[in-house]
Amino acid sequence: MHEVERHRIILAEVEEKPIATLSYLVDLLGASEATIRRDINDLHKKGKLKKVRGGAEALHPPTNVSLVGRPYSVNQTINARAKRQIAQAAVELLEDGMSISISGGTTTYFMSEFMRTRKLQVLTNSFVIAEQLVKRSKCVVTLPGGSIYRDQNIILSPFPDDISSRYYASLLFIGAHGVGPQGVMEADPQIVQAVMKLMDQAECRVLLVDSSKFQNRSNLLVCPLSKIDIVITDDGIDAKSRKMIEAAGSQLVIAKNDVDSVEPAG
């Protein structure tokens, strides 16, 4: 990853957390500790953040409550090509007239690029997905009530009984922070709660994750892999993860590497 891109991601991280630790940034960026220390020093000297023991913090640390995890704007740039390939494969499962649910996330967002000609009933808790579908598709879109989390472009309700728990979907499309032997994982408990509501009302559950997610872990489980009917990922998935999906009884779909041949919605 280029230095400019690392600096942009580091600055986005410190704007979201009281302190972005050195170890966290090393894992996030896949760079050496020495490289991240140098980046933090450079940004500190330029007056863009404050270097602190064990990491870095913003010049004006955030006081607002936010969800755990990277901002949407950062996630959208990571593995974008693979995410679009996966999203295109997911849209191929759709048929006009279906009632579907799409959970917020950057991989699921790319689905909306390929849904321009579809006529579907769509429930989503992502207002960027909703905006794209309202402007550029023939879908009927429903949003649940709740609070808007700007950094993740998502709407979440603290109440157990909202439209999400009463909406039937033929297909549910979700992303994840990580996937492992324990199951599908998310970084924030509110996202776990929101996804579980959608899962209870879906006939078929489809997980959209790029291959890097099989290396990520969290202490928050959404569900075991056995509750996922279809897993769509890219061809970077390793043999161990393939076997894990097969052992769980989930169907594995490897997205084709021809996404550029499809013109996305403008």
What attributes characterize this protein structure?
266 residues, 2 domains, disordered C terminus, alpha/beta, Arc Repressor Mutant, subunit A, 21% strand, Rossmann fold, 7-stranded parallel β-sheet, globular, 9 helices
Structural summary, described in words:
With 266 residues, the protein is α/β, with parallel strands linked by helices. It has helices at 3-16, 22-29, 33-45, 72-75, 80-91, 106-109, 127-136, 189-200, 239-247, and strands at 20-21, 50-52, 55-57, 99-102, 121-124, 140-142, 147-149, 154-156, 169-174, 178-180, 183-186, 202-208, 220-223, 230-233, 251-254. It folds into 2 domains: 3-62, Winged helix-like DNA-binding domain superfamily/Winged helix DNA-binding domain (Arc Repressor Mutant, subunit A); 74-261, Rossmann fold. It has 9 helices and 15 strands. The radius of gyration is 19 Å and the shape is globular. The model is unreliable at 261-266 (pLDDT under 50).
The CATH class assignment of the largest domain is Alpha Beta
Question: Cα-atom Rg, whole angstroms?
Answer: 19 Å
**How can the largest sheet be summarized?**
7 strands, parallel
Question: What's the average pLDDT?
Answer: 88
- The residue ranges in which pLDDT falls below 50 over 5 or more consecutive positions are 261-266
Q: Which class best fits the helix and strand makeup?
A: alpha/beta
- Strand composition percent: 15-25%
CATH topology of the largest domain: Rossmann fold
How far is the first residue's CA from the last residue's CA?
A: 28 Å
Domain module count? 2
Order of helices and strands: HEHHEEHHEHEHEEEEEEHEEEHE
Question: What is the count of DSSP helices, taking H or I runs of 4+ residues?
Answer: 9
Strand order of the largest sheet: 6-5-4-9-12-14-15
C-alpha geometry = globular
How many DSSP-defined strands? 15
CATH architecture of the largest domain: 3-Layer(aba) Sandwich
Helix content: 25-40%
Protein name: Transcriptional regulator of sugar metabolism
Keywords: DNA-binding, Transcription, Transcription regulation
GO molecular function: DNA binding; DNA-binding transcription factor activity
Domain HTH deoR-type: 3-58
